[in-house]
């Protein structure tokens, strides 16, 4: 049976007290559910340590973004290494909101990806196309460029895990989810590209974009998908627990 991943990206939706309260609530309720999946939550940087403490034993936490230099005069940034030292195992890299709202280029995403690897965390590299790119039949082209840029000339550390989240930009935060069979088609393409670019590395591929309790099981059942990266529906105990229960 494949390993299942349930990841929740809280983005900038919750204040500190709300984050801690949600984490406390989740810990109580998740312990009773005895979930078999690997669960990770990506809270805001300011609440990460407190959330980590609350979720101890049920879920790990990770950053939504990192900076690639380890230490130095970079006001306002937090490095991948610092997150590692704070006990994080996973880190999101190249989320569509970073790429499109903050105009992060493939080259910057590459530096962050490498920094996460160097810090010995598992990168969760987010890739996906916009609706105009999909309409122009450029899905594979866009995703291949995102993957190629992240991996080009990279000496892959033997035995390291790699997670790719397929998050079509048009499905993120819109309520319009990608058809599971189409997400599976793209996941298979991602799987093939990664294997070719990284000499046989087999990534874990997740789907993200308007995942809810009524569609999560369909994504998880697809052969090339091993779970989901959820935004909005992970920020309330009720909706997150419904998602967890739906795949249990
Ligand atoms: P939504 O689940 O809110 O569409 O967000 C998905 C996402 O961006 C997860 O990283």
From TrEMBL:
<dbReference type="InterPro" id="IPR020861">
    <property type="entry name" value="Triosephosphate_isomerase_AS"/>
</dbReference>
<dbReference type="InterPro" id="IPR000652">
    <property type="entry name" value="Triosephosphate_isomerase"/>
</dbReference>
<comment type="pathway">
    <text>Carbohydrate biosynthesis; gluconeogenesis.</text>
</comment>
<comment type="pathway">
    <text>Carbohydrate degradation; glycolysis; D-glyceraldehyde 3-phosphate from glycerone phosphate: step 1/1.</text>
</comment>
<dbReference type="GO" id="GO:0019563">
    <property type="term" value="P:glycerol catabolic process"/>
</dbReference>
<dbReference type="GO" id="GO:0004807">
    <property type="term" value="F:triose-phosphate isomerase activity"/>
</dbReference>
<dbReference type="GO" id="GO:0006096">
    <property type="term" value="P:glycolytic process"/>
</dbReference>
<protein>
    <recommendedName>
        <fullName>Triosephosphate isomerase</fullName>
        <ecNumber>5.3.1.1</ecNumber>
    </recommendedName>
</protein>
<keyword id="KW-0312">Gluconeogenesis</keyword>
<dbReference type="Pfam" id="PF00121">
    <property type="entry name" value="TIM"/>
</dbReference>
<dbReference type="GO" id="GO:0046166">
    <property type="term" value="P:glyceraldehyde-3-phosphate biosynthetic process"/>
</dbReference>
<comment type="similarity">
    <text>Belongs to the triosephosphate isomerase family.</text>
</comment>
<dbReference type="InterPro" id="IPR035990">
    <property type="entry name" value="TIM_sf"/>
</dbReference>
<dbReference type="InterPro" id="IPR013785">
    <property type="entry name" value="Aldolase_TIM"/>
</dbReference>
<keyword id="KW-0413">Isomerase</keyword>
<dbReference type="GO" id="GO:0005829">
    <property type="term" value="C:cytosol"/>
</dbReference>
<comment type="subunit">
    <text>Homodimer.</text>
</comment>
<keyword id="KW-0963">Cytoplasm</keyword>
<keyword id="KW-0324">Glycolysis</keyword>
<dbReference type="GO" id="GO:0006094">
    <property type="term" value="P:gluconeogenesis"/>
</dbReference>
């Amino acid at each position: 049976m494949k390993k299942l991943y349930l990841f929740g990206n809280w983005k900038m939706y919750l204040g500190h007290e709300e984050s801690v309260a949600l984490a406390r609530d989740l810990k109580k309720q998740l312990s009773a559910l005895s979930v078999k999946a690997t669960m990770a939550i990506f809270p805001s940087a300011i609440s990460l340590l407190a959330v980590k403490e609350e979720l101890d034993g049920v879920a790990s936490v990770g950053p939504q973004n990192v900076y690639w230099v380890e230490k130095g005069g970079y006001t306002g940034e937090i490095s991948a290494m610092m997150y590692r030292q704070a006990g994080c195992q996973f880190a999101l890299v190249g989320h569509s909101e970073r790429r499109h709202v903050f105009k992060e280029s493939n080259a910057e995403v590459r530096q962050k990806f490498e920094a996460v690897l160097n810090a010995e965390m598992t990168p969760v590299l987010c890739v996906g196309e916009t609706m105009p790119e999909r309409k122009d039949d450029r899905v594979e082209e866009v995703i291949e460029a995102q993957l190629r840029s992240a991996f080009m000339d990279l000496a892959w550390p033997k035995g390291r895990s790699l997670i790719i989240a397929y998050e079509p930009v048009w499905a993120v935060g819109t309520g319009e989810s990608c058809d599971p069979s189409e997400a599976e088609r793209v996941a298979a393409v991602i799987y093939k590209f990664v294997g070719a670019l990284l000499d046989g590395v087999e990534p874990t591929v997740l789907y993200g974009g308007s995942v809810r309790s009524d569609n999560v099981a369909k994504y998880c059942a697809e052969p090339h998908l091993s779970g989901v990266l959820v935004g909005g529906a992970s920020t309330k105990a009720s909706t997150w627990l419904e998602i967890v229960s739906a795949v249990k």
